[in-house]
Design a protein that fits this description.
By secondary structure, this protein is an alpha/beta fold. The protein has one domain: Rossmann fold (3-Layer(aba) Sandwich). It has five helices and seven strands. It has a five-stranded parallel β-sheet, with helices on both faces. Strands 1-2 form a two-stranded antiparallel ribbon. β3 (about 20-25), α1 (about 25-45) and β4 form a beta-alpha-beta unit. The radius of gyration is 17 Å and the shape is globular.
């Protein structure tokens, strides 16, 4: 579906058929989900919800010789991912939006960019800071996606940061 321009001489209609929505279960990503679902409903888009198991955290534990903890962390991330993606699918149904769930493994920013290309996303809608929290203004994952993605990105601030 595309937004139609009503003024002569304006650029071609904007296509928003596929929205990539990276989620991690945080308030920030839940806020981004509300935006993505509203946009999808308005444009008739489909949302591709993505949860990335952050393997860097698992590798750090393994590197410290804490293999059992690393295995447990991996299981916990998978369980959380299933829960987060299930909630996204349920929210999509409530809004009349098709949500396709994806789970990836790796460095979150790399996996988000890879997934956007793989699914042919037209836009990425993501929170500024998620459960992995950093001290930077945007968050390291958002910064990485902005740097390497070739498509538009809507970065949604955390609800508590809005004044």
């Amino acid at each position: 579906m595309a937004a139609q321009s009503s003024r002569p001489g304006q650029s071609a209609p904007m296509k928003l058929g596929r929205i990539l929505l990276p989620l991690d279960g945080s308030d920030c990503s839940n806020s981004a989900m509300r935006y993505a679902l509203a946009i999808a409903r308005s444009y008739g888009s489909e949302v591709h919800a993505l949860y990335v198991i952050n393997e860097a955290a698992i590798w750090a534990l393994e590197g410290q010789g804490r293999r059992d903890e690393a295995l447990e962390a991996g299981r916990e991330f998978e369980e959380e991912g299933r829960r987060v993606l299930s909630e996204a699918s349920r929210a999509g149904s409530e809004h009349g939006v098709k949500v396709v769930a994806h789970m990836g493994r790796g460095i979150p920013s790399n996996e988000i960019v890879r997934a956007s290309r793989e699914i042919g996303a037209d836009v990425i809608v993501m929170g500024t800071r998620g459960s992995h929290g950093s001290q930077s203004l945007l968050g390291s994952t958002a910064e990485g996606v902005i740097r390497y993605s070739g498509i538009p990105i809507l970065v949604v601030p955390c609800p508590k940061r809005r004044q």
